[in-house]
Design goal:
- This protein is α/β, with parallel strands linked by helices.
- It has 2 domains: about 140 residues, Rossmann fold, CATH 3.40.50.2020; about 140 residues, Rossmann fold.
- Helix content is about 30%, strand content about 25%.
- It has 9 helices and 14 strands.
- The protein has a 7-stranded mixed β-sheet, with helices on both faces. A 5-stranded parallel β-sheet has the order 1-4-5-6-7, with helices on both faces. The protein has a two-stranded antiparallel ribbon with strand order 2-3.
- Helix 1 packs across helix 9 and helix 5 crosses helix 6.
- The longest helix is centred in the N-terminal third of the chain and has 17 residues.
- It starts with a strand and ends with a helix.
- The model has no long low-confidence stretch (mean pLDDT about 95).
- The protein binds ribose-5-phosphate.
- Ribose-5-phosphate binds next to strand 11 and helix 7.
Length: about 300
């Protein structure tokens, strides 16, 4: 099996290759003066099973185009099969029409990948159950939740804690994690988001609040959802607060917002590469490389 990486998350791709007892195969990405890109694979792939690892995080469109070009180069190079590992699948929040006149972006990108004759697409913690249905090829959804459960137990964060979903959309996620943690109790916050400004607010929740909370979300983008949830929980007597989120999208001022929020620590996976300038003292990164490598081995 030959593993290639786009430029979005070479750290994770290298770790996956390491677990599979190999190194990343060579790939060149050339940028023309007008910004167009050309990719070139530097390894022979004739009759080989190949894997391309590329998170379609910021810059989303650029990373998608690169993924499409690498797949095309692998197919033209004679690869027997191509598996696309897209740990963070960009555009998944636009999974339906929220307001009249909108597109359904995730169906467009999943549709393009579906037409590329891939063996399968492997991703992690989709935003909703609708995402898998957007593909007409096998789409495998791995999860960071077992890794989160293991970390919560190892660090003793589970003692006397309850889980929190910061919005109604996270109920499926919170139920799975609760089960992994021996039916840990959970609370669901009613979040509102202004679709024009993106501003988040929350003043209601259902469930019994205690003193130690673990907020779980699929992604952190602006950090607004976490900051608002943290405020609400603190106002209601929570003293210790931890956050576990799969995808560290970290747009705009997210690192500052999270560092300034009332949370003790923020745990994310490495589905999205976090550059040094977006690191902050409360942040801890857990690797999905073993989980992804195990799937590729199977
Ligand atoms: C929304 O439904 C998602 O599950 C996340 O809660 C959301 O995308 C986080 O975005 P932000 O960090 O910008 O509030």
């Amino acid at each position: 099996m030959k593993i290639f990486s786009g430029t979005s998350n070479q750290l994770l791709a290298g770790r996956i290759a390491g677990h599979l007892g190999t190194k990343l195969s060579g790939l060149e990405v050339f940028e023309f003066p007008d910004g167009e890109k050309r990719v070139r694979i530097l390894d022979r792939v004739v009759d080989e099973d190949t894997v391309v690892v590329q998170s379609t995080s910021t810059p989303v469109d650029e990373n998608y185009m690169q993924l499409f070009f690498i797949i095309d180069a692998l197919k033209r190079g004679g690869a027997k099969s191509v598996t696309a590992v897209v740990p963070y699948f960009g555009y998944q929040r636009q999974d339906h029409i929220f307001r009249e006149g909108e597109d359904v972006s995730v169906k467009m990108v999943a549709g393009i990948l579906s037409r590329m004759e891939l063996k399968e697409v492997v991703s992690v913690d989709f935003h909703s159950v609708k995402i898998r249905e957007a593909f007409s090829i096998p789409a495998v959804e791995l999860s960071a939740l077992p890794l989160f459960a293991k970390t919560i137990k190892e660090k003793g964060l589970d003692e006397g804690a309850f889980l929190v979903s910061p919005d109604m959309g996270g109920i499926r996620r919170i139920k799975i994690l609760s089960e992994l943690l021996g039916d840990m109790p959970y609370v669901v916050i009613e979040k509102n988001r202004d679709l024009t400004t993106g501003a988040v607010s929350a003043d209601k929740f259902s469930g019994q609040i205690g003193k130690k909370a673990i907020i779980v979300d699929d992604m952190i983008s602006s950090g607004g959802t976490i900051a608002v949830a943290a405020d609400l929980l603190k106002k209601n007597g929570v003293q210790e607060l931890y956050v576990f989120a799969t995808h560290a999208v970290f747009s705009s001022e997210a690192p500052k917002v999270l560092q300034a929020s009332g949370v003790n620590s923020v745990y994310v996976s490495d589905s999205v590469f976090v550059p040094i300038e977006k690191m902050f003292p409360k942040l801890e990164i857990l690797s999905l490389s073993q989980v992804i490598a195990d799937r590729l081995k199977s």
